[in-house]
Amino acid sequence: MLGMCRGRRKFLAASLALLFIPALTWLYLSAANFTVKPLPLSPLELQPSTLVGGAGERQALELRVREVEEENRALRRELSQPPKNPTHSNQHSNSQHGNQSHPHSTEEGTGDSEAQKVFTTGNSSSCIQQPVVDKCETIHVAIVCAGYNASRDVVTLVKSVLFHRRNPLHFHFITDSIAQQILASLFHTWMVPAVRVNFYDADELKSEVSWIPNKHYSGIYGLMKLVLTKTLPSELQKVIVLDTDITFATDIAELWAVFHKFKGQQVLGLVENQSDWYLGNLWKNHRPWPALGRGFNTGVILLLLDRLRKLRWEQMWRLTAERELMSMLSTSLADQDIFNAVIKQNPFLVHQLPCFWNVQLSDHTRSEKCYKDVSDLKVIHWNSPKKLRVKNKHVEFFRNLYLTFLEYDGNLLRRELFGCPSETDHNSENLQKTLLELDEDDPCYEFRRERFTVHRTHLYFLHYEYQPSSDQTDVTLVAQLSMDRLQMLEAICKHWEGPISLALYLSDAEAQQFLRYAQGSEVLMSRSNVGYHIVYKEGQFYPVNLLRNVAMRQVNTPYMFLSDIDFLPMYGLYEYLRKSVVQLDMANTKKALVVPAFETLRYRLSYPKSKAELLSQLDMGTLFTFRYHVWTKGHAPTNFAKWRTATTPYMVQWEADFEPYVMVRRDCPEYDRRFVGFGWNKVSHIMELDAQEYEFVVLPNAYMIHMPHAPSFDITKFRSNKQYRVCLKTLKEEFQQNMSRRYGFAALKYMTADNNS
């Protein structure tokens, strides 16, 4: 009996031990988990609490817990792996993706098991310790960009990258001549710290891929990514390649860090294609190029360039393309078809990325399985021709994210990356030196500072196509405007059939409003000879003369007519000016042809179709000579009394405050940038023309009419702000002194003239 009791007590004790020991162990580990802090991603993120009392014990505990967790993960991976085949084959069935015969951790995104977990548990990327990218490591990004539209679209991609980035960036643009001109000017004036840009001539690469028939809307440029190993510098080891229709929702350094996960012979990082295209079941007799399973999308590519070169990538893709084209005849998805055909034959090349690195928003895709929450999103790819009109139940969210960057003020992205040495930018250094020399206590400091402000400039915002006439008489109308004068564009286009160069002073959001306005206008869309150049807003003044200079620099005809957006030129003025070029021997003389200016106070005017009709309206009081009642001196030297009866051109002399609208040769001097807003902006330019001995010749059968509008903000400031007028007078006097120093004795008349503003 006693033995039985003892046996029961032993059994009870053993049972309690079995129950309590795991419980105590669980409590201990739980307590450890609550106190353990995640390892910092960089030295800058060390928490103060890890640097004081008990630090050694806590760190040792953290390390031990992480070691145990890693051992458990390794054990689970080992148990979940199927038996390995004794031989490795490069031929995989359609159900195999990438290097599935190699064991990988699920967080590396190299197989279907990883994709399954993403689809069922969301992209819990924040729980995965990412490889650290050095704080000052330069991230290289390659983008193929050609034409006006792509040059506009790529800016949104660049903004999204700049918004999130914490590292220096080096963009490599493979461009045609159009995109290079636009983007070179944009980045030069954007002046973003720690950003380098290089351009590679796509025209020189066309022969490398022009032999490949391609049905894709991207044309020959859609094949350029195949030759990046040959195009990019030989010392460049790795690069992220992006399509222009990509939007980043995270720091690009996270994607750059994935290079550390490449193993073996993996040289391409790609996301699985999220449509059924390569499955060949979209329609009857649908026959896509060969691919592993669903294939891979090439909108986002990680390229290990040094390894690709060693693998003789050029020869590899060429042989594959030649073989497949014998039966396929052409590509349907440009470079993507050839990349997939190469991977089909060499699956060991690819490292499959989690699909949140390329959420593909084309119709009928599985993109919705790539995310469960906003925080899961990394990269959005608008890879449908429909772009923002694509079908997706969350498309409103994606569209709003895209529009945020589309309309985001790019000037706010000019932020420094502290702690990283950057290459010397002499333009930026000289600008800073000049600004430091200005006296901030000067009442006119803001006026003086505006002269040196670098405004971000996007040339040719819309498609432009025009070849000047071969007779060397062609003329471009030059003007500038802001958002409140947009309604004048259609009327000017109806009055002037020749080329036009316009500088528009807009914010990023206003630029998109202008784009929608222009694309909705049949008049504007029917004209391909109008160059729209966006100068983005910055500062408190309207930089009128900078805008004029921007528009003038883009003139590609021998002559230009310097106008203002508020004026409607007479019907036929374009052809009349071209005839005057020959009649007055403009090519061999320095002349400024004056177009007499008139104005109306009526918003609805029956525009005179001839000089006789204009004189009739002038006599009836429907029209007036321009500014006769407020600024007579501005146009008085035109001599309107003589013009009424003139039948041949006549010369007039410069007088103080003369500011006519003139046609000149393209090589005429630019406007002086010190004059901003209202006052003396045209007067100073005409004075410069006179100093350079231009002859002012009035055309007898030409005219233009100023249309009424509400007063501009700048003229309101001029009239109401005494300091504004004082500063304008100071700038005028300084300009006259400069003229005297530059032109000597001949410029004394500008000092002595009674120039009242």
UniProtKB/TrEMBL annotation:
InterPro entries: Glyco_trans_8, Nucleotide-diphossugar_trans, Xyl/GlcA_transferase. One of its GO terms (molecular function) is glucuronosyltransferase activity. GO terms for cellular component: Golgi membrane. Residues 72-118 are annotated as: Disordered. Gene3D superfamilies: Spore Coat Polysaccharide Biosynthesis Protein SpsA, Chain A. Pfam families: Glyco_transf_49, Glyco_transf_8. It is a single-pass type II membrane protein. It catalyses: 3-O-[beta-D-GlcA-(1->3)-beta-D-Xyl-(1->4)-Rib-ol-P-Rib-ol-P-3-beta-D-GalNAc-(1->3)-beta-D-GlcNAc-(1->4)-(O-6-P-alpha-D-Man)]-Thr-[protein] + UDP-alpha-D-xylose = 3-O-[alpha-D-Xyl-(1->3)-beta-D-GlcA-(1->4)-beta-D-Xyl-(1->4)-Rib-ol-P-Rib-ol-P-3-beta-D-GalNAc-(1->3)-beta-D-GlcNAc-(1->4)-(O-6-P-alpha-D-Man)]-Thr-[protein] + UDP + H(+); 3-O-{beta-D-GlcA-(1->[3)-alpha-D-Xyl-(1->3)-beta-D-GlcA-(1->](n)-4)-beta-D-Xyl-(1->4)-Rib-ol-P-Rib-ol-P-3-beta-D-GalNAc-(1->3)-beta-D-GlcNAc-(1->4)-O-6-P-alpha-D-Man}-L-Thr-[protein] + UDP-alpha-D-xylose = 3-O-{(1->[3)-alpha-D-Xyl-(1->3)-beta-D-GlcA-(1->](n+1)-4)-beta-D-Xyl-(1->4)-Rib-ol-P-Rib-ol-P-3-beta-D-GalNAc-(1->3)-beta-D-GlcNAc-(1->4)-O-6-P-alpha-D-Man}-L-Thr-[protein] + UDP + H(+); 3-O-{(1->[3)-alpha-D-Xyl-(1->3)-beta-D-GlcA-(1->](n)-4)-beta-D-Xyl-(1->4)-Rib-ol-P-Rib-ol-P-3-beta-D-GalNAc-(1->3)-beta-D-GlcNAc-(1->4)-O-6-P-alpha-D-Man}-L-Thr-[protein] + UDP-alpha-D-glucuronate = 3-O-{beta-D-GlcA-(1->[3)-alpha-D-Xyl-(1->3)-beta-D-GlcA-(1->](n)-4)-beta-D-Xyl-(1->4)-Rib-ol-P-Rib-ol-P-3-beta-D-GalNAc-(1->3)-beta-D-GlcNAc-(1->4)-O-6-P-alpha-D-Man}-L-Thr-[protein] + UDP + H(+). Its main location: Golgi. Pathway: Protein modification; protein glycosylation. It is found in: Golgi apparatus membrane. Residues 86-103 have a biased composition (Polar residues). Keywords: Glycoprotein, Glycosyltransferase, Golgi apparatus, Membrane, Multifunctional enzyme, Signal-anchor, Transferase, Transmembrane, Transmembrane helix. GO terms for biological process: protein O-linked glycosylation via mannose. PANTHER family: GLYCOSYLTRANSFERASE-RELATED (PTHR12270), XYLOSYL- AND GLUCURONYLTRANSFERASE LARGE1 (PTHR12270:SF48). In the C-terminal section; belongs to the glycosyltransferase 49 family. This is LARGE xylosyl- and glucuronyltransferase 1. It comes from Astyanax mexicanus.
